[in-house]
C-alpha cells in the first residue's frame, strides 16, 4: 500500500463510520417500523446511498432533506440519489467505501 492509499483510506473513515451507524439503524430500528416509507428506496436506504456517493456531510444533508419531504401528504414514488459525477471508489459487499483496487 502506497502512502497516498493510506491517506485516502483514512479520509474515508468518517464516511464509513456514518455508514456503520446507518447499517445498525437498518438492522435494529428499521424493522420495528416496517415498510412505511412513501418513497422508493426507503429513507434509510436513500441515506446509505447518499453517504456512499457524496460523503458524510453532504450525504447527511441530502438524507435530512429527503426525510423532510416524507410526510403523510407526500405523493411518494421513485426517488433515487443522483450519483456523484466523480465517484472514484469501490464498495465492499457490505456497502462500505474503499479506495479503488488497481488490479
Automatic annotation (TrEMBL):
Give the UniProt entry's GO cellular component terms: plasma membrane
Q: Report keywords, A-Z.
A: Cell membrane, Membrane
Q: Which InterPro entries match?
A: Membr_insert_effic_factor_YidD
Q: Which domain of life is it from?
A: Bacteria
Q: Which residues form a coiled coil?
A: none
Q: Which Pfam families match?
A: YidD
**How is it placed in the membrane, per its record?**
Peripheral membrane protein
Q: Which SMART domains match?
A: Haemolytic (SM01234)
What are the subcellular locations of this protein? Cell membrane
Protein task: Could be involved in insertion of integral membrane proteins into the membrane.
Entry-linked PANTHER family: MEMBRANE PROTEIN INSERTION EFFICIENCY FACTOR-RELATED
Instruction: Name the family the entry cites.
Output: Belongs to the UPF0161 family.
Any idea what this protein is called?
Putative membrane protein insertion efficiency factor
